[in-house]
Amino acid sequence: MSRISYVNGMYCDHKDSLVHIEDRGYQFADGVYEVFGVINKKIIDYHGHINRLYRSLEEIRLKSPISKSSYLYHIQRLIFKNRIVDGLIYLQITRGVASRDFKFPKNCKPSLVITAKNLLTNEYENSFKKGIKVKTVKDLRWKRVDIKTINLLAPVLAKQDAADSKCQESWLIDEDGFVTEGSSSTAWILKKNTLYTTPLSNSILNGITRKSLIKGLKKNKLKFIEKKFNIKDIKYADEAFITSATQYVMPVVRVDNFKIGNGKIGKYADIFRKAYMEAIQLT
Ligand code: PDD
Question: Does 235 qualify as catalytic in the annotation?
């Protein structure tokens, strides 16, 4: 079965799906995106993601090319057409195609691309059981990473740096030595039965998985604080985690040369994952 993608109003064979060479996404990274997780054919926290997409669009002064309800329609069509059971939806909007000029082009139609992909649940389960390894690197990103833009060169380099050290994620360290977040995930540590994550600001993305996990923690009366943490805190952490639309809640067992806890996933991994799964909304 060939994959089907949505490109500017049309459903196309994925391998023949094209955008123009002068698309502003390609030339300037002038666009925003969202990643939605899919579990059992249902979209996880659809409204949270679509609201964040609208916020990102507003921040870069770009009008949505289609109505809010049309996004849901096209995403659900792609889940169906691609027979996605567990997987992800990638959605990207750029300012469109125009002769290269930094200023916003006049009368330019935004480009909208949506793709769908199946993910193997046993791969996720295997990673969850083992836990992942993290490498810390400098946070070299721009100052508005609260906007989910396609300008991802710094995270690409950070993730590759991690991969070169046989790690699955990088944690980004700001100028004061604190972790902002992962290159494509939210970062958490657990100390004395309390979970810590960085407070919201322009220096991190407001993770939708983060939000649902917090909802689940509150419901289950699990202790949690929004507070910055640094390498020293990581060194003495009992457990650590990342969260994202595709990794859900994923335990971290090593950061640089430090084992977290005893180097195996801790007792809270299942508890937090369960709290998250109970808190999500499926559409
Ligand atoms: N990334 N922080 C960053 C920098 C991210 O790129 C992501 C998600 C998150 C977690 O956000 P959420 O829980 O809403 O997925 C935090 C996606 C998955 C990606 O770029 O592929």
Answer: no
